[in-house]
Amino acid sequence: NARLITTKEALSHLSLLYLGVDLGIIKGIKREVINNLFIVIQPAHLQKMEGKALGDQERDYKRAALLRSKLK
Fold first, then answer.
1. Are 68 and 1 contacting, i.e. CB atoms less than 8 angstroms apart?
2. Residue-wise pLDDT tens digits, 4-50
3. CA–CA separation, 25 vs 60, rounded Å?
4. What are the two backbone dihedrals, phi and then psi, of residue 31, each rounded to the nearest 5 degrees?
């Protein structure tokens, strides 16, 4: 349960998650969810969702929270 995650780290983990889903190793997560996460974890998208500019640490916090909520 990460509390902070950078864009680069999140993209790397999502890529591995995608691979696991495609190989049938990971069940219960739809590819569409992962595809959407690739977009919404981007810095500009997070700021647009919040309606304000966010600092690096705040973006990393919001990104981690979003990933936790979508991948439960």
1. yes
2. 999 999 999 999 999 999 999 999 999 999 999 999 999 999 999 99
3. 28
4. -60, -35
Distance CA 26, CA 65 (A): 21
pTM comes to: 0.90
1 pLDDT band (50/70/90 cuts)? low
What kind and span of H or E run contains 18? Answer: helix 7-22
Long-range contacts of 10-16, Cβ-Cβ distance < 8 Å, separation of 24 or more: 10/37, 10/41, 10/63, 10/67, 11/38, 11/41, 14/38, 14/41
